[in-house]
Write a structure and sequence with these properties.
The protein has four helices and six strands, in the order H-H-H-E-E-H-E-E-E-E. It is α+β, with helices and mostly antiparallel strands. The longest helix has 18 residues.
Length: 140
């Protein structure tokens, strides 16, 4: 990541928050999840469902510490879009299902909180004729 010290600190804080939200122990604690989600939080899940802060708390509180984390996270990167606003992108994989993820983290008086998240299915983890290798294509 090339950028200012402010950008590096901001992106690092967002990545740390993202990783905490992926931790089953944190997800099982409504108080910890609440501390990491912005009051105006919205998510478009990989299932296509829309969640707000209240509905995501119902889903995450059903998770317990024995629920496995995604088996792999790849390509985690972030950029400071504006002071106090970081965009993260990465891919997760669990049970052969790959999902591209995008999060916006907003700094508030109480720290960095996830403002928006989207998960988009990316096909199976292994390339096939239906889902060719996951590489960017040059524009024509």
């Amino acid at each position: 990541m090339n950028g200012s010290a402010e950008e590096e600190r901001s992106v690092r804080a967002a990545v740390e928050g993202e990783m905490r939200l992926l931790d089953p122990g944190v997800r099982a604690s409504p108080d910890e999840v609440t501390a990491l989600l912005d009051p105006e939080f919205t998510e478009f899940g990989a299932s296509g469902r829309r969640y707000d802060r209240t509905s995501i708390l119902a889903v995450t509180s059903a998770v317990d510490e024995s629920t496995p984390e995604p088996s792999a996270l790849t390509g985690m990167s972030g950029v400071l879009l504006a002071p106090g606003l970081v965009h993260l992108t990465y891919a997760s994989e669990s049970n052969g299902r790959r999902v591209r993820r995008s999060s916006l983290w907003r700094r508030s008086d109480s720290g960095w909180r996830m403002y928006f998240h989207q998960g988009t299915p990316a096909g199976p983890s292994q390339p096939s004729a239906e889902y060719p290798a996951d590489t960017p294509q040059a524009a024509d």
